[in-house]
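User: Structure tokens for both sequences below?

Assistant:
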Amino acid sequence: MSIYQFSYLALPNNIFMYKNALQPSANFKKMARKSILAILLFVVTYLLLVSAAVVLTILSAYAGLMLIVAKPMVITIMLGGGLICFGVLILIFLVKFIFKVNKIDRSHLTQVTKAEQPALFKMIDEIVIAVGTDFPKKVYFSSEVNASVFYDSSFWSMFLPVRKNLHIGLGLMNTISIDELKAILAHEFGHFSQKSMRTGSYVYNVNQVIYNTLYDNEGYSHFAQQIANVSNYFAFFVVLAGKITGGIQFILKKIYDVVNLNHLALSREMEFHADTVAASIAGSDALITALHRLQLADYSLNNVFSYYNDKIKDKEKTNNIFPQQKFVMDFYASLQQIRTVHNLPIVSEEHYNKFNKSKLVLKDQWSSHPSTADRVTHLKQLNFPLKSYGSGIAIDLLVNKDEVLEQITKKLFDAVDYGDTPLISDLSKFEEGFFENQRQNAFHQLYNGYFDFRNPPHDLGADAFEKTTFTIALDVEDFFSDENLSLIYLHDGINEDLNLLKQIEDKTFDVKTFDYDGKRFTQDGCRDLISRLENESRDLEDQLKKLDIQIFEYFLSLSAEKGRKEEFVNFYGTYQAIHSLLEDQNNCHHKIAQATSFMHTRTAIETIEQQMHLVKNEEIKFKEELLKLLANPLYSEQINEEDKKLIEKFTSSDYKYFAGGSYFNLQVDELFESIQLFVKIINVTNFKSKKKLLDFQVELVNVHRSKSVSLIAD
């Protein structure tokens, strides 16, 4: 018998309120109707095109055969065959989607059965009964912070029943409660809870059909190319067919835009409905707390992945990443003073929105999901009470939990060759390495994240260092208060809004109306709002610059008071010298990266040959910047012997990169390796110089406090 006992709470007296809430909303029905009308438009257009293609194919085949029969010879056979292929290619283009199957990659997934995990499957059983849908065909585990329902789809999925598979990420189960897991799984099955919801699945499949017809043409293009290679006669008709299929694509693209916009609008309504289902089964708060924590959970898991990615060279891995994910999540929750309940951090709505100070509200017609804020508002309006099904973290539902977690972890690390004797890191060793990474790559807690977003002033003249008295009576923590940090968030929010408003004004982003700070604006009214926000942004930047100077003067004064001004000036001078070069270095990197961007994609030979002239021009400037790094002692700490040899080899070479229709892969690899090395050296050097300065300032504060404590004791 399972140790987890699930108890059902009785529904409130007003049960009709619950039933009504689970019915598709008026907005959903409206979007469903519009989607169906858009599909009908596509079907009518498509049938007309197919009919025309069939007629053209018959006429082409007839003309081709008559030409051959009339005068059988090589040229007429080629022309007749070309005509037949011309019609067939157009018809194939229009019906190829019938044979297309969209298969979901399962290589990262591990199937799990009811016999292996009875408690989890009991929960799933309860959900599918409550939702009124079918039990999943198969259940899979992965390492992700995610859950989803998926299936392989094809044209025939619109007419034949398809059983869905359930994917549950153990990175998710490891960071949510049992209640929250039930809410998330109920949300996934909520998409298929009623017959009316199946409209969404039908619209999705039609959308896939149109997309495949328009954009998934690799197999078709290969087939057409093979026909064109038969002879120049055939090639002529292949080109002609390409012109016609291009026209068909143009027509269908217009239809697709209409269908897709309605599909996306319907998808957003389906998300709200699925949230309603989830809230009715587990309670509104269960889904709200999960939504607010997912970003932290995902960030924590990615931190663990990043840690072991850096350890590949040392052949270090672990048998179980999930306790380490939980440790990192708890660490950051503690660092940000997030309260913990039942061993899980409860990320408040205020904290979740802490960094987002945007006041611009748009109806994003190209988004398939509503924003988290909109979903939370919807869930609060529903206000379904929390239904407690069990206590504890969801991962504890698993039988033989450690074995399962180790199995999924092994699948992750099996993709990397660690040799015969890898170094296995346990939680204790990971914690030690993580804290060392924090020490080396994060700024001290004294700064409260201030310098994660700001740099110390880097354009100070020599006279700025002559001032040694500080007249503002503030504790050092006052400079880095939450109030001052909110100025940074507000400034960034205004600048993000400004960027989007300018796109709305010049119609790059086409919206007719939008809300800003609770007021409705039109596209024509952007200019006044932009001017106002530009003034607000300048005022905030002035405030922050003034604060930056006050912080600088405080530490300058403190260094003089402690007899360590010369050290402070040296640290600051190194930081300024390195930072002063960064803008030109970043410009150089941007230009070489932009010039070589075509090399990452499939590109026509003629275009490659043209672009290579630009690459060689930018390569000259890039090599100059690389050699400057070698010659400048400020960068020597970040350049080892292997790096030095690569830079010297690359800068002394005259590579062609491309000739005779092919890339020289070794030369291209060396170019990109040099670009990556350049970025690493300049960014790490800049960061280290900034960190050394900030760490020295912390040292001054610690010395100051220790002496103050000593004086009090005396």
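Moving on to the next sequence.
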Amino acid sequence: MAETIVTVGIDIGGTFTDFWVFDGQKIRQHKVLSTPGNPEKAVLQGLKELEILQLALIIHGSTIATNAFLERKGAKVALVTTRGFEDVLEIGRQNRIGIYDLHVKKPDVLVPQEGRFGVTERMDWQGQPLVPLTQEEIEKLGKRLQSYNPEAIAIVFLHSYVNGVHEEHVVTSLRQQYPYVFASSHVNPEHREYERTSTTVISAYVAPVVSRYLEQLSETLGSSLRVMSSAGGYMSAKRIIEQPAAMMLSGPAGGVVASFELARALGYERIVTFDMGGTSTDVAMIQGRIPITRDMEFDHLPLRSPMVDIHTVGAGGGSMASFDRGGNLRVGPQSAGSFPGPACYGQGGMTVTVTDANFLLGRLDQDNFLGGKMILDRNATHQAFQTLIDQGLKHGVEMTDVALAEGIIEVVNAAMARAIRRVTAMKGVDPAQFVLLSFGGAGGLHAADLAAMLGIQEVLIPPDAGTFSAQGLARSQAYADALASVLKPTHDLTLEYIQDLLEKLADKTVKQLADDGHRAESITSFYHLDLRYQGESYEILTPWQGTLKDTVDMFHQLHEQYYLHKELLTPVECVNLYVRSIAEMRTIPLPLWQNSAAAKPFAHRPMVFKGESLSTPCYRREELSADQRIFGPALVIEPASTILIPPHYQATVDHYGIIHITQ
């Protein structure tokens, strides 16, 4: 790894596949249209166009696992569980989706009833066998599975998080015939039967898709390939295949990593990340560290796996606009994707999207989109708007194309503002106390208006904002993690017990990283405790402070921040210990902005703001100088994104080329 010259971050999105390249001196960025039916094709095409031929470290983020799950294109899974618990996956929790919705539909169960197999065995809550697992029972299971013929198997026995020996026996037996066998004691070794079952089943469900995809890429890229995990660090392809659910938020995690590195370099402690791409928008809150959670849901199914705490909404540049039966304007979550894409792409798309609305309002340059690689089609845009206007008339809504375009922008901005409030206000913090860091190909067009809606005073837009998530992949570090269940009150635990168990978990993660080729001296381990008040259902991930007392004190502070109260007289329970280890291999500095001469507008274009057309100067971002100030309205264009500075706003460029927008 020390000989690596080129570092490449590759992020596959719904519309574009982004590349960010650092060769030790220069930075390059690149975009190609995504190829959803064959995603590795876009990856290999982009690498060929960039002429990445020499030794490289390629860190790749992809939605391949998420897409397989959401589109229900995963494997045929068999669930093997303790007899009597076959229906845990279908029963779920008592929580209801849309409690007042008379037509609500429960998510599809990933394993049908005929695919669930009960086995006679039982552990008690302390991990002591109550009913032994016999070889005869394992052989019976093998015969029953043959008739079902699964592609992957999930094994979830009761209390295996304390003692997984029964699961290990079944894995050993079945691995001879089935390549994808996952035991819950390895995938998610903690209590809560439903969540542990769901997590293990999701891992098995996406495993063959992830494995085939990475094997195809590895045939071409070989040992250069690394894969971004949902937890904000990368793994070898081999380790990802062993825990495929770690790819569920692979791409979006890169944007949060890049935001954290940028915030740290600029001295910002509180950042809200805003990543608006072609299909969706991802938001996260950073307070001095990358936010990690293990409590996520995908399509209302729980997934207990370490992930960057990101909230996603179906609002992007390709989100399609329509009128519902009541005549209300809707935007998203359906997206036009990369093909046919928005109407303005001129590829046959006939539905108005957010990108078309921005184009009609003059906020996209017809001749300089994607650095001039794509000429936007004005006639196709007007035709699509006329179709939508006619649809509105059928519902008694009469609007001009300009009013309709501004309405689309307002609706999509409202959806994205709700997403940001969810990761800030719903966690006890005021978004107005943060800085908004905007990236993604479409983010710069909406960031200033979004900040105004939330009371945020400053917006940061880094260079290469359209490939910022890919930059985060390139800046990420290798990581490994481990977890152990405790489930005891903190007053029953000793410091020696905690330290000994944390060290064992750390040794496990260090070995994983060492097996991937990382030196022990480059590895740093971070310790956490999952704590809760006795009687509570869910815990707070609390950084280890060196002593139990100090860690419990930190928990009280976090509980008060999240829930506005703390219970100093209520016993605190330790649910799990969690260790995350990072191998720091390289540092990619923020490059200084080289331009010194202030740029002049290359054109003035009419743009619409609140129904009024204003002559607006357009600048090329690469021509801006450090310390240059621009007054709105103005448009700043770069190859992968466009930045709008509305009226009454101003923008300044710092010595890293980052644009700061304020009122």
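User: Anything stand out in the second?

Assistant: Residues 193-221 form the longest helix (29 residues).
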